[in-house]
């Protein structure tokens, strides 16, 4: 899960829908697992859109379309709204996505992605619309995500944008560190704070 | 600047990381069985103990059946998850209110009713409806499982400070209009992402006049506008509610606490990143028609004529109406209803049962409607019986089930069958939320009760 992050260049899987909620990313009935079985969650990513009621793949859903491959998911505005379930981020990571590009992310889900070394890249509405067009015109369209320089480039048009991420989290992603390591190392500060509060 | 949110947040800052998040101290962590197992697993893998176990409270609620709780859970996978929470709590030395414990119930109902959620606190849980506890005048928000593990390990969390928003609702609510309708109205006005990145302070006459139960409902639904949390400055209503509860301060400590809590309000000079004002007169009983909580209308209104009127992109609007089996421009009054669900962390409190009972008193449940009435906790169940509401409900043909999250997200057996239409007092109408293929209309307990006795979508004001 803790894959170090640097520069990723990949084709994309487009999901041009807005308000994709975490119940769609991973329905509640798959939340009963008690371990982080990445594979299990990945296999059930977008379960009810991806499979028909009889369990056969839905040929109209993008994950079942062999034209679209790659480790970058491109989604409409307000991706990951709703429930706080981190299982949604595990499903995205478990499927093999390393980047999600959207013009807007729901707060809790965005943190969940970052905590699982999936990079949420927030782009402008224009950039997103153009990227959807590029992918539609040519499914082999590649995108380059450069975390050290905080840039995202649509390689078919050359359009490049910078994206935001704080320096601390960027450092964590590039070096494969997580917040728990940091907080445990800082316990003395917490103890001091508790004493001062009293 | 100088908002109540700033005051509470600033008081809990352990350190500010340069060009990074804040290390924020957390007073209370709640854990349920669904979003905690992997956090406990992570703690074991790292060889860590909980840093402040006394500040962590655990209870199962999502998987619990709403009948025969005294017997083992039939679904082995649900049983495993519920049993694992009990074991984890025991292994890590945490308080645990197990199934059938008189203290058990939905975490967001139990926390306030036990006096565990208090003004000025920072409160988190691996559950987006943790915003509920904001009604107590606390900064409360939902987190992911990795973040649950952070709090277990350090009683702290790393977070970017959100922006602040104040939503004032002025005037007086009309007859039959409840806190749920206010929240559904706000979601329709703001959309499900209108408050993303913000923490919301609710204010205005309407909010002041709301009971504690109403405030809990309003704050509960903050996340459905995208807000990380929502809260209400504590006042006499808050103090009256807390006084005497199990974990509330007692004696001299109580007087001291109230003095301190009285200072918990935004300054007159407070500056919010965003301020919105609404008029209570514009709010009628509400229902949703689509597949996100922002797709709502007044109960007498029609579904928007097109995507533009609904303020949505075409594909999403059409997809939602197809799923719901509704047409653009359609009126929903009179639409046949199959299921009614009263409960959830949104509307599973005593006042919700009072409202429902007041509407069905002297009437009969419509024959074709299946109704699930699920108290939010055993304490609510006891109060229902003390007040004799159970008799009223039974006389009208309703049965009270045992507490839990139930059909809100259908992780137990309470699933709405595919294609069936449910009027639900819960918080989300997402595709498949109440069971694969289930169609959900979100509404207040009064609208739910009106549907339950008439068998169709009915304006509750016509029955008052």
How is the topology of this model organized?
The complex is a heterodimer of chains A (198) and B (464).
Chain A: E1 7-15, H1 22-25, H2 38-43, H3 47-50, E2 72-75, H4 87-95, E3 99-102, H5 107-115, E4 119-122, H6 125-137, E5 142-146, E6 151-154, E7 160-162, H7 167-175, H8 179-185, H9 187-197
Parallel strand pairs in A: 1-2, 2-3, 3-4
Antiparallel strand pairs in A: 1-5, 5-6, 6-7
Chain B: H1 4-11, E1 13-16, E2 22-25, E3 28-31, H2 37-46, E4 56-58, H3 76-92, E5 95-96, H4 107-113, E6 122-125, E7 139-142, H5 145-154, E8 156-159, E9 163-170, H6 179-190, E10 198-203, H7 205-209, H8 212-220, E11 229-231, H9 236-242, H10 251-261, E12 274-279, E13 286-288, E14 296-298, H11 314-324, E15 339-342, H12 344-347, H13 350-360, E16 370-373, H14 378-386, H15 389-395, E17 421-424, E18 439-442, H16 445-454
Parallel strand pairs in B: 3-4, 3-6, 4-5, 6-7, 9-10, 9-12, 10-11, 15-16, 15-17, 17-18
Antiparallel strand pairs in B: 1-2, 2-8, 13-14
Helix pairs in contact in B: 2-5, 6-8, 13-15, 13-16
What does it look like?
- The complex is a heterodimer of chains A (198) and B (464).
- In chain A, 36% of the residues lie in helices and 17% in strands.
- Chain A is α/β, with parallel strands linked by helices.
- Chain A has one domain (7-197): Aconitase, domain 4 (Alpha-Beta Barrel).
- The model of chain A has no long low-confidence stretch (mean pLDDT 96).
- A 5-stranded parallel sheet of chain B has the order 5-4-3-6-7. Chain B has a 4-stranded parallel sheet with strand order 11-10-9-12. A 4-stranded parallel sheet of chain B has the order 16-15-17-18, covered by helices on one side.
- The N and C termini of chain B lie far apart (44 Å).
- In chain B, helix 6 (179-190) runs parallel beside helix 8.
- Chain B has 2 domains: 4-274, Aconitase, domain 3 (2-Layer Sandwich), CATH 3.30.499.10; 286-462, 2-Layer Sandwich (Aconitase, domain 3), CATH 3.30.499.
- The mean pLDDT of chain B is 97.
- Chain B is globular, with a radius of gyration of 21 Å.
- With 464 residues, chain B is α/β, with parallel strands linked by helices.
- Chain B has helices at 4-11, 37-46, 76-92, 107-113, 145-154, 179-190, 205-209, 212-220, 236-242, 251-261, 314-324, 344-347, 350-360, 378-386, 389-395, 445-454; strands at residues 13-16, 22-25, 28-31, 56-58, 95-96, 122-125, 139-142, 156-159, 163-170, 198-203, 229-231, 274-279, 286-288, 296-298, 339-342, 370-373, 421-424, 439-442.
- At the A-B interface, helix 5, helix 7, helix 8 and helix 9 of A face helix 2, helix 3, helix 5, strand 8 and helix 11 of B.
């Amino acid at each position: 899960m803790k894959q170090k992050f640097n520069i990723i260049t990949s084709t994309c899987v487009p999901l041009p829908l807005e308000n994709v909620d975490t119940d769609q990313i991973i329905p509640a009935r798959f939340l009963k697992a008690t371990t982080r079985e990445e594979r299990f969650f990945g296999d059930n990513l977008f379960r009810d859109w991806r499979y028909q009621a009889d369990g056969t793949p839905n040929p109209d859903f993008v994950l079942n379309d062999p034209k679209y491959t790659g480790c970058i998911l491109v989604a409409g505005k307000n991706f990951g709204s709703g429930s706080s379930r981190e299982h949604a981020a595990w499903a995205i990571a478990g499927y093999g996505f390393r980047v999600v590009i959207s013009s807007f992310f729901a707060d809790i889900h965005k943190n969940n992605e970052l905590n699982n070394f999936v990079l949420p890249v927030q782009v402008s509405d224009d950039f997103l619309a153009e990227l959807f067009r590029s992918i539609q015109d040519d499914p082999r369209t590649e995108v380059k995500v450069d975390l050290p320089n905080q840039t995202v480039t649509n390689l078919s048009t050359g359009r490049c944008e910078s994206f935001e991420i704080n320096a601390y989290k960027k450092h964590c992603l590039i070096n494969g560190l997580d917040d728990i390591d940091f907080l445990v190392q800082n316990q003395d500060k917490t103890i001091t704070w508790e004493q001062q509060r009293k | 600047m100088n908002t109540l949110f700033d005051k509470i947040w600033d008081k809990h800052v352990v350190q500010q990381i340069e060009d990074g998040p804040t290390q924020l101290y957390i007073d209370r962590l709640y854990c349920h069985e669904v979003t905690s197992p992997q956090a406990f697993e992570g703690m074991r893998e790292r060889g860590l103990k909980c840093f402040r176990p006394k500040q962590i409270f655990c209870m199962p609620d999502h998987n619990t059946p709403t009948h025969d709780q005294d017997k083992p859970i039939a679904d082995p996978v649900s049983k495993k998850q519920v049993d694992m929470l009990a074991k984890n709590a025991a292994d890590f030395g945490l308080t645990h209110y197990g199934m059938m414990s008189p203290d058990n119930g939905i975490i967001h109902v139990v926390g306030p009713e036990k006096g565990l959620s208090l003004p000025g606190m920072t409160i988190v849980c691996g559950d987006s409806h943790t915003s509920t506890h904001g009604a107590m005048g606390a900064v409360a928000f939902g987190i992911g499982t990795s973040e649950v593990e952070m709090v277990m390990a350090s009683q702290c969390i790393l977070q970017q400070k959100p922006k602040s928003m104040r939503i004032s609702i002025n005037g007086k609510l009309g007859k039959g209009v409840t806190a749920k309708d206010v929240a559904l109205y706000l979601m329709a006005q703001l959309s499900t992402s209108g408050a993303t990145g913000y923490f919301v302070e609710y204010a205005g006459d309407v909010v002041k006049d709301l009971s504690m139960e109403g405030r809990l409902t309003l704050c509960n639904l903050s996340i459905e506008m995208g807000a990380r949390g929502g809260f209400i400055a504590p006042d006499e209503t808050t103090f009256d509610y807390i006084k005497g509860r199990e974990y509330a301060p007692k004696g001299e400590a109580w007087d001291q606490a109230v003095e301190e809590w009285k200072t918990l309000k935004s300054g007159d000079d407070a500056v919010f990143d965003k301020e919105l004002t609404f008029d209570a007169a514009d709010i009628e009983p509400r229902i949703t028609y689509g597949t996100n909580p922002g797709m709502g209308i007044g109960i007498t209104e029609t579904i928007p004529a097109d995507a533009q009127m609904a303020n949505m992109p075409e594909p999403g609007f059409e997809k939602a109406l197809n799923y719901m089996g509704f047409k653009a421009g359609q009126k929903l009054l009179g639409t046949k209803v199959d299921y009614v669900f009263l409960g959830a962390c949104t509307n599973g409190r005593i006042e919700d049962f009072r409202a429902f009972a007041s509407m069905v008193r002297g009437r009969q449940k419509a024959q074709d409607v299946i109704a699930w009435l699920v108290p939010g906790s055993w304490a609510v169940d006891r109060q229902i019986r003390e007040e004799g509401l159970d008799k009223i409900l039974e006389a009208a043909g309703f049965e009270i089930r045992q507490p839990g999250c139930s059909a809100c997200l259908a992780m137990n057996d309470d699933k709405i069958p595919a294609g069936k239409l449910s009027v639900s007092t819960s918080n989300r109408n997402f595709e498949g939320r109440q069971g694969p293929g289930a169609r959900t209309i979100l509404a207040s307990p009064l609208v739910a009760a009106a549907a339950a006795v008439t068998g169709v979508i009915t304006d509750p004001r016509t029955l008052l």
